[in-house]
User: What shape does this take?
Amino acid sequence: MGTAVGTVEDCIEMFEGSAQTSVTPFSPTNQIGNPVAYKLVRVSGDGSLVPATDEEILEVNETDMHIASDACQTVGDLATDEENLEVNETNIHIASDAYQTVGYLATDEENLEVNETNMHIASVACQTVGHLPAEGMSHLESSEAINSGLLQSDNVRPDTDQYNEKMLQKVEQEERLGNVHGSQVPSTPPDVNIQFSNEKKFIKEDQAHYEALLQEPISFSSNVQNECNVNQSGMIEPCSNAAASPKETALSEAAQKPDFSRVRGEICLDDLPIKALQETFRATFGRETTVKDKTWLKRRIAMGLVKSCDVPATNLTIKDNKLIGKQEKSSVMTNVVSKDMCDDVRATKPKDAPSSTDHVNATDHYYASEDYSSEQRAAKRVRKPTRRYIEELSETDEKQQNDKPMIPLKDQRSSEKPEVRSISVSSGKRVAVTRTVSLAGSEMEVPYVSHVRRSRPRENIMALMDYHSSCLEDRASPAESNFNLTPSQLNNEVVKRDLVVESASRPVQKEFSTSDKNNEEHILSEVDQDMEPEHIDSSGNSSDDMGLPIMQGGALRRKHHRAWTLSEVTKLVEGVSKYGAGKWSEIKKHSFSSYSYRTSVDLKDKWRNLLKASFGQSPSNSMGSLKKHGSMHIPVQILSRVRELAEKQSLVPR
DNA sequence: ATTAGGG
DNA sequence: CCCTAAT
Assistant: This one.
């Protein structure tokens, strides 16, 4: 079957196919406060969604990924380490009209690893927050990802010109998909606040600025004007202050092609028939719609007018006019930023609630989020840095992973929708998105990134380069030439080939080069020469082992398992013969310069195993061959060679 | 920073 | 493989 990955638009097209793979935005219904989660699924003929298999996921790595979403929050979370490498050649375009878009970019080495990634996050969000740790700014600014569009100016803000386009696109998509989640009202996850208070350092006096900042993207959007007025001085006039209804305001001020007569004046959306709603929709968005869903239409219209996803589902049944005009809550656009959360926070902080008025000002917000973030940080700090190993071994119950109590603010809402256990944790440096979601009944894991480094520290930059380029190789070969081979088939074939090559004595490795160019050539030639299997199974492993640490059997596999290939073993043996057992760093330097993932410790361990194997093998020759499953069958020659060397070493200990 | 060993 | 202790 073919595999297609693309925009949500493409997604639609895929419905026409029988069974294809697509990246489908998971839009939990009535989700509030949970970031949208993406999972890879296949749309089977009957329209049901089937979790993608490893291979499919792998294939996606090579594909351009366009994600359009109306999530309240879109978290562009760049994975780290291997995970990053896996998206090296992926172009990720996230077009989102999310209320908030948080682009999290890793720092340090992690940035290096996303070098090849083009990440465009075009957001029409009311608010776009770039999670930029102050300390990491310099790094971030040097990141291509940043340069390529995530951050465009001093203020992280969406390309306003694209707002309308995206919005319409999205609406269109929803229509075409029949994906009408009328009552979805995402809200803002906690960490947003943190980011605001901590990263942006908003202060009370800056309220105007703050609001202006938030408004800016909106006021710049052209077609879908909203209820907010921003005069030239930068002052903001919340629509609530406007005498006219939001709609009126928006429409009268907006010089647009859409026919606004339809939406002029007070209109109670609830009273309108579907047809009228459609008209209104057209007037608002300047385009026709075929959606019949009244709720959806109403919400959509409201959203269009408010230019925010913050159209509460619960209020949807209320007259939208009132909703917008009367309930100042939603009109206080600037503060809708997780207004719910603010409430929650304030609930715990009796004092500063401005009692009567609904005037949730930035001050409150600020304080609230400040405290909130403080708590977060505190919690974060408390966390023990390196209990990784223990966790790995004992994390049978990964659901409990929330090492941070994560502020029980989520209260009812979280309990209402446990499907998406998506948690954003901010330590001011990282954002981790996790979870297991259930869609269409099936449970599946959403790729999530631990804030813990998942691979061994890199030796140096060259090692990184090595890995990087080899990774590119990895991705290219299996995905293209061996497209329809199963991993096992691949392995077999490769191993066979490797055996052949194996017999020939291998030339000494080229010297470790400090030149990118040279090094790359080195890698390439190397790969070209013997088509090292590890390049292939490495990718295989990356999906098998890293992607799914927990097997069906329940037994968890090592996070970083890379099967040793014969050529590696050979290199190792040769290395030992040359430099002697124990000189692992030497061996690594000379014989494994192109295998950055093999550390000297790995070499040592492997050698230890080889010794065990070689000595345990001689008594009963059958042992090695009878071991049908698991480790590869090390050729007797090598084992004998190993024994030979071992004896030599023991006899002549330096 | 490397090695040796235990798990 | 991963972790730690000892060099």
Summary: Residues 1-42, 52-267, 309-556 of chain A have pLDDT under 50 and may be disordered.
